[in-house]
Amino acid sequence: MPLTRQNKSAQVEWISNVLNDNEVLVVMENKGLTVAEVSDLRVKMREAGGGVKVVKNRLAKIALKDVDGGDQTAELFKGPTFIAYSEDPVTAPKVVVEYAKTNDKVEILGGLMAGTAMNAAGVTSLSKMPSREEVIAQIVGSLTAPAQNIAGAIGAPAANIAGCLKSMAEKEDA
């Protein structure tokens, strides 16, 4: 059943919202995925904090017209394509690259991040970067490390004295 003009404009608006609300968009080619395989990818992406959607190429190209880097990304929409998106710029690429490793029916074509078009290699290299949560954890670890070192240095002499006293007590008992 063909889409009505109202449905088409709603889908263009939805794609525009996805582009505005998310940091990254990954474009993939569907080389014969079954419904179950697409559902599996959707579940994995949803668990990671992103989404996957099959979009009409023409409508995606219309939505990309007003976006920086959209012209280069619009060229990727040929044949059976679908998109993955996430607020964290690393989440969607990580999930898609991992899924593509286990399923040869998915080919990563490229993507768009912060107005910059990427090819498939760019998406793959982006997937190797740490996620936002991992970066925050590293920063927190770096900030708390000096305090832990100070606490360890303060407690070390007391531990040494206790160890010496224990050794002396064991020698006397022997």
Automatic annotation (TrEMBL):
Q: Which Pfam families match?
A: Ribosomal_L10 (PF00466)
GO biological-process terms attached to the record: translation
Q: Which domain of life is it from?
A: Bacteria
UniProt keyword terms in alphabetical order? Ribonucleoprotein, Ribosomal protein, RNA-binding, rRNA-binding
Annotated Gene3D superfamilies: 3.30.70.1730, 6.10.250.290
SUPFAM superfamilies, per database record: Ribosomal protein L10-like (SSF160369)
> Does rRNA-binding show up as a keyword for this record?
yes
Q: Which PANTHER family match?
A: 39S RIBOSOMAL PROTEIN L10, MITOCHONDRIAL
* NCBIfam families according to UniProt: PRK00099.1-1
Query: What's its job?
Result: Forms part of the ribosomal stalk, playing a central role in the interaction of the ribosome with GTP-bound translation factors.
Quaternary structure, from the entry: Part of the ribosomal stalk of the 50S ribosomal subunit. The N-terminus interacts with L11 and the large rRNA to form the base of the stalk. The C-terminus forms an elongated spine to which L12 dimers bind in a sequential fashion forming a multimeric L10(L12)X complex.
Name of protein:
Large ribosomal subunit protein uL10
